Amino acid sequence: MSGITEAYIAYTIMLGLVIWFSRDVLTSILSLEDELEALSDEEVTASEEE
Amino acid sequence: MVDCGSVMGNGGHHPRRLSGVKMNFRDSGYALTYLGLAGILFVSIIGLEYAPGLKPCTGGGCWGAPEAYRIIYLHVPFAWCSFLSFCVLFYGSLMWYLNRSEEAWIYFQSGSDLGLIFGLGVITSGPIWASAEWGVPWDWADMRLNSFGLLTAIAVFLVYSRQSQPDTQQNRDTLAAIGLFGFVLVPITAGATKWWQTTHPPHLVVESGDTVGMSPEIRTFLLISFGLMCILFTGLFLLSNKRYRLAAEVSSRKNEIDQEAIS
Per the confidence metrics, is the pTM higher than 0.90? Predict the structure, then answer.
């Protein structure tokens, strides 16, 4: 047994972890920016109504 | 609840550069993350297919699974980056106690997230290599394995607690205390193979010479891999900080709107 299969499995797990985390952070940033923009719009609308 | 209003310190104007003209170091998180990811993919391909491997047999005996040795090209940089993450966690915990500032808590959150991701990478890839080479995935007598496992367990606990418990100052104090004391495990884990020599390999990368330890080719490729992993780590750290800054600002804005609605 050379262990190359185990090496491929370990690399897949480690790469999967960093790719998943990067994707999670980037998605969160996008959604938080959208939420912030929606809150700003809400504030503008509220002040215009006043 | 903890007041997040102080985090931005800009009178409620959010810090996004809509024009895209003004750039600073924090904005380089995207570029560093993409560069780091590309670098790690490159390291993976080279590490699995082309990087120098081990001779199956040497004067000291034969390896059980010489190709599984390629795991170290990512495993070791993951382990070192997890130590960097726990340093960030320690800094965030300490600053939280000293300043009670939102910025310190952002560091704490990023440090615990990154510690968890890199720690999980280490404690999954390590046993895969160990089961191929040693025949057992975990050696309970090995100090480094056990202390690193505990370190990762602390990161799991911190991330889970942050997500499941109310965000109050008391809870932040408790978690920061665990972050501070958990950091004690970092030097213990780093020095474990020197102080308690069991099955885990000793400080091969640092102490290798021309005649002792790993070959210069393997060590050079390992250091290149660590350099690229550091780029990814820095990118993820900056992006994670950005995420928690935005989250704090959203929370602060919502509080302001609620207060205005009440008054």
Answer: no
Residue among A2, A25, A33 minimizing CB distance to B65? A2
Which among B68, B117, B132 has CB closest to A17?
B117
- pLDDT tens digits, residue range A1-50? 678 899 999 999 999 999 999 999 999 999 999 999 998 887 777 777 76
Using the 8-state DSSP alphabet, how is residue B46 labeled? I
Q: Count how many domains chain B has.
A: 1
Please report the beta strands in B11-83, taking only residues with DSSP state E, as ranges in sequence order: 57-58, 61-62
Q: What are the structural domain ranges in chain A? A: 25-50
* Residue B184 placed within a domain: yes
Q: How many residues does chain A have?
A: 50
- What is the residue range of B148's domain? 29-51+69-206+213-246
Q: Judge whether B107 lies within some domain.
A: yes
**ipTM field:** 0.90
Does the distance separating the beta carbons of B67 and A7 come in below 8 Å? yes
* CA angle (B164, B167, B170) in 5-degree steps: 110
The CA distance from B178 to B104, in Å, is: 15
List B62's β-bridge partners, or say none: B57
B58 DSSP β-pair partners = B61
